Amino acid sequence: MIPLFVLDEDGGRPPGGASRWWLHHSLRALGDDLRAAGTGLVLRRGPAAAVRNLARETGARTVFWNRSPEPATAAGDAALETALASDGVEVRTFNTFLLTEPGTVLTGAGTPYRVFTPFWNRLREIYRPPPATHAITAIRPHDGIENGGLDDTGLLASPPDPTDGLAKTWTPGEAAAHARLGQFLADGLVSYPGDRDRPDLIGTSRLSPHLHWGEIGPAEVWRATAALRTCSGPHADAAEVFLRELAWREFNHHLMFHWPEIATRNWRDRFDSFPWRSDPHGLDAWQRGLTGYPMVDAGMRELRHTGWMHNRVRMVAASFLVKHLLVDWREGEAWFWDMLVDADPANNPGNWQWVAGSGADAAPYHRIFNPVLQGKKFDPDGAYVRRWIPEIAALPDRWIHKPWTAPPDRLAASGIALGETYPAPIVDHAAARERALAALSRAQEA
DNA sequence: TGAAATGTTGGGGCG
DNA sequence: ACGCCCCAACATTTC
Is the pTM of this model over 0.90? Predict the structure, then answer.
């Protein structure tokens, strides 16, 4: 058996900086694990023809791979399968990236779900995880195969900034993924329903990059979580809440299967006439965490520093760009794509469209997050914003989510000169809200 | 997985 | 002691 990884930079959406960092370290971990098992990892550059070439070089009889759910790669996979078949090579592929095969979870009428909750109700009814399989333990070493080596991939040619924040936050690799799941189920699951929206706590599983990079599969996560669900009580309820979030990932991939254009075009085409603004200064302030709204700025700084942002804060920060600044969701999506270690071609656009209102959100009203209220509700002590915005850390709780309302003497006492050490709000919330509502209702009529 | 406007209630200050 | 006002806290309605 020859473990092979093909880096095909033209085979799908090109990975962003944080993704390249993760992939580099994940491949290193995988290579180390395989060497410890007595073999190693062969690295080749794409396109997928590299697989065919290696099969010819080595006389392989069977080629196995995990299918990517990206519609962009499906054609390449099919072509490779045909080519291998014509060489007399058997192909066996697997879907380990998702719980189900996209296209197989349908309404009674046989149509795709457009709303999450009915999708979830159906999924939890029909889905049962397959039994665990054993890892392959005996891998015969392979010799004499040309191996590019990790440094030749160039994945770290232009490293994200700052890399040390990523390294201090994350440990890519299969072992770390499993350790994280185990720790979460043991220590975090029971409090998950209450803490999952609290960016000041470690209330979520933080499995998203491990899942995205295939270091752990959703079926295993479901299996381990559901095992705790069998007994009733707080564990059962918490397991339900957690698996529901795992199903969002599934939902977004199914949406992209049925509507591949969701990655770049408005899912609701009424938004095609939406009056997006060109606002380079606003976009820049948002990217750098200098909007003057602490909850937004903390999130954007956490993202840049760690390659990750808490889910609740993603909604607030994304809503701010799209609704308060009226910047096209694709601009924000592109930034997240470059910055996130869990950047995913289905989840990232799907969630951005949900926030923008152009996606699969069943809410009958226009959802505009108030960054101050969200801060008070989900970061009640201000610990989260203080961690990421040290320049306002000395401000008392009462004003921590709205520094511009603090009396001048309290600002001075906290070492804050509004507009100098920390920005005044770049837009007024009430005015921006009215502007967004007007634009949204016009777009809806169109 | 929202927010704001509106409605309700109950406690405390005060004449 | 009593009624009145104010307001915070909470609940309900509406978009």
Answer: yes
Q: Which of A228, A210, A20 is nearest to A97 (CA)?
A: A210
Q: How far apart are CA A373 and CA A312, in angstroms?
A: 12
Say if CB A324 and CB A432 are below 8 A apart.
Answer: yes
- Each residue's pLDDT tens digit, A278-305: 999 999 999 999 999 999 999 999 999 9
* A328-383 per-position pLDDT tens digit: 999 999 999 999 999 999 999 999 999 999 999 999 999 999 999 999 999 999 99
Residues of A 68-87 whose CB lies less than 7 Å from any atom of strand C = none
What type of residue sits at position A241? Answer: V
Nearest protein residue to nucleotide B2, judged by CA and C1' positions: A367
Q: CA–C1' span, A269 to C5, in Å?
A: 53
Contact, A329 CB vs strand B, < 7 Å:
no
Question: A4-94 domain in CATH 2.60.120.200?
Answer: no
Active-site residue A354, yes or no? no
Which tokens in the block code for residue A265?
């075009």
Q: What is the CATH number of domain A97-132+176-258?
A: 1.25.40.80
Chain C nucleotides reached by a protein CB under 7 Å: 15
Pick the CATH number of A269-445 from 3.90.1170.30, 3.20.20.120, 1.10.579.10, 3.90.1150.10: 1.10.579.10
